[in-house]
Amino acid sequence: EPEVTQTPSHQVTQMGQEVILRCVPISNHLYFYWYRQILGQKVEFLVSFYNNEISEKSEIFDDQFSVERPDGSNFTLKIRSTKLEDSAMYFCAGTRDSLNYGYTFGSGTRLTVV
Amino acid sequence: DQQVKQNSPSLSVQEGRISILNCDYTNSMFDYFLWYKKYPAEGPTFLISISSIKDKNEDGRFTVFLNKSAKHLSLHIVPSQPGDSAVYFCAGNSGGSNYKLTFGKGTLLTVNP
């Protein structure tokens, strides 16, 4: 069964450093997302991406965040200058064209900012 | 702004019994709802969904009920199995072209053998 692959599984970074979280979506998916979950909190929407551009972003997704799908395969989330409060599980997800079977999520990247 | 509320952080059930997980929502624009299951160190896995034009959807041991007037949905698992022990998230979608989901905080279900 096709999978969404996220790397790394765990990233520890110093406050103020840039991090890039990587995702390889399922090849026939068209809509891509980043969500995050701070420990014990709900899964929060960050950004949606379709047709090589951002289709919607949340208030969390400020100027420190950016997404790219540079080669039509990898889908990356960059945080330019990490803050302590960016520590969370970051999930990449995708769907082809409906919610009939929900999204397919990756296993997540645990980002720890120290 | 909690548009999707799962007021029970945890639920414990005996194997073989029914598990009922509840979810309330405030956004009247939601027209599609999904339940996800999440094991530790894994991403959420889609379980079952329901459109707002229905009041029930069933898939094997899992049934989702939707009460639009009460803005309430529930997930029934019967019979519950130890492998069902996980965090269950309710999510809503308000249509539109990008399929964005709004999640609740989740309920940790523990099924005891």
Tags for this model:
heterodimer; A: mainly beta; 7-stranded mixed beta sheet; 4-stranded antiparallel beta sheet; globular; B: 113 residues; mainly beta; 6-stranded mixed beta sheet; 5-stranded antiparallel beta sheet
Oligomer: heterodimer
Give helix % range of chain A.
Answer: under 10%
What is the arithmetic mean of pLDDT of chain A? 93
The termini of chain B sit apart by 37 Å
In whole angstroms, the N-to-C terminal distance of chain A is 36 Å
Class inferred from helices and paired strands of chain B: mainly beta
The pair of chains with the biggest contact is: A-B, 28 and 26 residues
- Radius of gyration of chain A equals 13 Å
**Helix/strand order of chain A:** EEEEEEEEEEE
- The residue ranges of chain A in which pLDDT falls below 50 over 5 or more consecutive positions are none
- Shape summary of chain A: globular
Number of helices of chain B: 0
Average pLDDT of chain B works out at 94
The fraction of residues in strands of chain A falls at: over 45%
Rg over CA atoms of chain B: 13 Å
Count of β-strands of chain A: 11
Kindly state the number of beta strands of chain B.
11
Secondary structural class of chain A: mainly beta
| Percentage of residues assigned to helices of chain B | under 10%
User: Helix count of chain A?
Assistant: 0
